[in-house]
Amino acid sequence: MSGGLAAIDAILTGRLGLDPSAIGSGLIPRAVRSRMKAVGLHDLEAYAALVRGSEAEVQELIEEVVVPESWFFRDVLPFRFLLQHARSCWTVRPKRAAIRVLSIPCAGGEEPYSIAVALDEAGLPPDRCRIDAVDVSAHRLALARQGVFSRNALRGMSPDVVARWFREHPQGLQIVDAIRRRVHFQQGNILDSRLLADETPYDVIFCRNLLIYLNAGSRAEAAATLDRLLAADGVLIVGHADPLGPSTVAPKFVLAAEPGAFAYRRRTETAIPSPIPIAPAKPFVFTPFGHQDVHLVEEPESAPAAAPVHHPDEADARPMLEEAAEHANQGRHGQALACCEAEIRRKGPSAAALALMGVIHQAAGRRAQAESCFHKAIYLDPHHDEALLALALIAERRGDRSAASGFRRRADRALKNKGASSHE
């Protein structure tokens, strides 16, 4: 790496905390070439000098590097958990203070607007919820405030649901004003120790698909920020591939819901309040994709247990795999793998067990073993969306855009097929 590129890399690493092995070796050089062309410079050293002396150019370079893809109700399960949590702990407790939710990073607004829709569907009026959305990218925040999205950001959603929450716009589809006004956007960096320092702690924080891209030191800083911003009985929702090893938040947190939601609460603090039973005479169903994703009204205790969301044919493996996940979340990777291996010896290989082993290996830094497990998982279940998404991220880190795109397309199809089958 040349001196100029190394200097730029150091500036971006210090500002964003990126792990070069996670983002791929070609991302920063491509961003630099794009900005050099934009400012009319052909000499790398001259451009490095510009970056060192111009905060505005640093921000422009950040805009080139931080271009996340997202879409509404991504992964579905975290939003289902949010609905159930809001319904159980706020909707039926009208005297409780307004729920406070943070989305960081919020990218182009798809996640915080999805949160706003979920809380509206949970029956919470605007004065009973506060949604803050933070991102390092000024450009993405400007787009988020407009609330205009391409149809690709709404992929998988049924036409009637789109018609309810969006209006036609010359540049695409715009979220309705009633939802847009619920979200408060601001620029900020999760590595800033003073970020949102004057804000009341949040009841729910969405921080998904960020930790995986950070180096170890920055990951610890981000975890400290999340720990500071989260209320004592708050819930932290992370991405499926975000590492929660001993250097981040795992020692302090335990799963607060089914593993697919990746929702965690503090281990030693007050537990999430128990839901107040609600008569299920007319169960309301939140259906962003035109099928029954999310039940706001839970069945009474005497009712049969609901079918698991992921891979119903592997329901009997869940208790052991949940124990494995619990070990992994506490940084006990060896014990977690032992649980998975014991389950495989007892019942034979399953996509769920192998995918979880992949996540565990990934958290422990064993990337080759993780990739192998994810491939085995999709061999057993070609429609295992979590394994497909994990392989897409691995391919992206290697700079293999073609493979990453292929895995993402397969994951999207798997999610759509899952929705269609649940509707039948």
Structure characterization notes:
It contains 17 helices and 12 strands. It is of the alpha/beta class and 424 residues long. It has 3 domains: 3-65; 77-266, 3-Layer(aba) Sandwich (Rossmann fold); 312-423, Tetratricopeptide repeat domain (Serine Threonine Protein Phosphatase 5, Tetratricopeptide repeat), CATH 1.25.40.10. The strands form 3 sheets. It has a 7-stranded mixed beta sheet with strand order 6-2-1-7-8-10-9. Strands 3-5-4 form a 3-stranded antiparallel beta sheet. A two-stranded antiparallel sheet has the order 11-12. Helix 15 runs antiparallel to helix 16. The longest helix is centred in the C-terminal third of the chain and has 23 residues, at 401-423. The radius of gyration is 22 Å and the shape is globular. Mean pLDDT is 80; it is low at 269-285 and 291-317.
